[in-house]
Predict the 3D structure of the following.
Amino acid sequence: MDGHGIYMDYQASTPVDHRVIEAMTPFWRVHPGNPHATDHAFGWAAARAVEQASEQVARAIAADSDEIIFTSGATEANNLAIFGVASRAPRERRRIIISAIEHKSVIAAARAAAKRNGLRVDTVPVDKEGFVQPDAMRQRLADDVLLVSVMAVNNEIGTIQPVAELAEITHSFGALFHTDATQALTACDFDVQRMNADLASLSAHKLYGPKGIGALFIRRDVQQRVEPLIYGGGQQHGLRAGTLPVPLCIGFGTAVNLLVGPSADQERQRIQDLRDTFVNQLRKVMPPIQLNGPRTSRRHPGNANIYFPGIEADVLLASLQPHIAASTGSACTSGTIEPSHVLRAIGLSEEEANASIRFGIGRNTTHNEVTQAVEKITQSIRRQETR
């Protein structure tokens, strides 16, 4: 991109779409109003802009605008969902269930919320493709479960979970269902009504919007069961206090709006075709590689998590700089030295996990970039093999 190499880390973050930037620009200087200032026209204009953004986000997931709570990102949204529900847990509901491949912001929040509120966290395993099996979930559920949290689309291996079925099972035991849907809108149609979700977390920078803004969908009849994390002026129905960042809200709404509509499926198919071309070309020049995660259509169209036998992933990535941007796992945990907990959960050994790289393809990726990336990866591996 722009002469700075080939960007293939779209699950970590996406470039902001130029149309998003254009929509945000006037709200940095021309429209300076506080959306919570009710005494003048500048405040009214800001409030209308935020409401429009809220409606855009809500419409994209089949929710109502008063069910959208803007946050600083998906990490805060996950924390609000888990801590908020745990803090108002009834005496008979003492367990939280999460999947083995959740984002660290769900894992850490669940453990901390459980410790603070005297609850217990149970983990449901996944199969070798990263799917939570409904029977496995059913076996762990009982009338003492407060909340179940299962990521809609995994950020490392792209698994698209059977969220609707898992939520239905969860509700049959009287528990609430939360899903981290951060990767969902670029992967599939995500409808909170059809998915039976009570709470769902979103993040703008995963879908061509700005960093620093996300949202938590909270079903209207569940909102009284959520304790706020941030107190103050009672903004956003009292669920998240603080002045909303108007330009970021506008950017989020615009980005989401660009993802829905008749062209959405075509764009996902184009990205999937590029992903498949990338994987197939790599297989032709180095047959031993393996794709980690789903082999079916139930996978994020731009995700390719690849195991390179006999190769150290961090060494390969270093040798590809500054030509290709990819990662060894979640951007939120890539600074750690332990192997990916997601890859270990689907059965990879520590050695195999440490030889795996996540490549992400997205809106700005071209066929030429995919071909160039294969060539550079091949050249780099061959140089390492001859040393």
